[in-house]
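I have been asked to look over a protein record a colleague put together. The record follows directly below this note.
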Amino acid sequence: GQLLTDGVKYIRKQMGVLVRERNPVITRYASKKHLRNPDFQLQAFEYRTAKLLQTCASDIQAHKKKVGVFQAWNDVVPKMVRLGRAYVEQFMLEQFVKECDKHHNDTEMYNILKLSCDLFALNIMKQNIGDFLDVIKRNKANAIGALVEQLCEDMREHAVSMVDAFEIPDFILDAPIGLSM
């Protein structure tokens, strides 16, 4: 019906804004500072969500005349599951960035939160690189993979204290990482 048409128009408008803002230099820029920049991370996640949303809407529009709206909708469900996950991950990153900003004055807390946030965002990008190919080129993808490994190493020194922060008794954890030092 009309509601779907309005939604598709909105999506096209949003995709147009995101596509116009995409800079070919930035898609290849792979410095650690850039990759750890929350603006870059949020833009990449927003682009991914908008792109998946547009794909779902376009597929429904293209198939609804042939098989009807109900069947067209059902045929797109697997893509909608990916879209749902992308949206939730985008929302989580937005909240993570806001929480990091709240602790900007507490250097130790900020550094651990920022490290966790960057690891979350970049690992999602690494695992779903196909969804980000329009904004991340091969050299940048390689740099993301290398940075994820480095961030895991950096996180290692904080692992025990982070687990201990949950105050889960060691006998329940029953794992070397959970043992207090």
Residues 7 and 61 are 11 Å apart (CA to CA). The two ends are 62 Å apart (CA to CA). The chain has a mean pLDDT of 84. Residues 69-102 form the longest helix (34 residues).
